[in-house]
Design a protein that fits this description.
Carbamate kinase; four-stranded mixed β-sheet
Amino acid sequence: MDGRKIAVVAIGGNSLIKDKAHPEVEHQWEAVRETCTHIAEMIVQGWDVVITHGNGPQVGFILRRNELAYPEVHMTPLDVIGADTQGSIGYMLQQGMDNEFAARHISKPVVSLVTQVLVDKDDPAFQNPSKPIGGFMDEESARRFEKDGWQVIEDAGRGWRRVVASPIPLEIIELEAIRTLVEKGFVVIAVGGGGIPVVRDDGRLRGVFAVIDKDRASSLLATGLDADLFLISTAVEKVALNFNKPDQKWLDRMTISEARRYLEEGHFAPGSMAPKIEAVIRFLENGGKQALITDPPNIARALAGQTGTWIVPD
């Protein structure tokens, strides 16, 4: 893209809730404003940024509101909930970036894009839904959702939860729109929550009962944009081997081959760091130049080579 430096920056939905005892929106605003400060530093350094974000906790809150309101108010389909969170979190990030730019006297437009992501309707994940979603319930409360098409499971002795499929993302439907906006100088917020999962039936798109891993979709977006950097902003400053064990070792850098080996050796927890490493590997396998994993306060320092974990081709 005309010699620009493009970074796809993936931030987690959980990172917008810094204190689980206080998930209220006003506290999410505080986290958004802080995150926007660090992303603005990247832009000052000359990066064009596309921001992606998670939405797991926010989807859970909407589902709980649905439960409490039913049957007085109709249930909300999962694909529409995804669109709702793309709009609400996107709005917060837009306003946070706009205000940060105003404080720095930077003139740069910001936009959120409701983003659909194509999946295969025959993806094996649909035969074995395994992604827990929403809050914990007793078995009787959970079973009543089965009549509406949900599958429910007992989750590790902590209660019952609904589960949905997590299919592999294949195509960002709005990729060309995102590319055009970046070329025009916009900061783009896209692929929120991994994107709204859709399939094609006879050439027509329709939403499906699923969620897409945010890091996988962000990796696909970074590949589609030929991004110079895929940055995953998470809860830790660096990636570690033997995390939280006496022989824990922080990693400054690893090659794609080392990342594959550490993943196979079980160093990265499923549902936590493992999906992030898998997404980075996929980006680099598809021609990506470099990836970085760090936490929001350390983004600028990591870009300067002072911290964070860099993952590069062999």
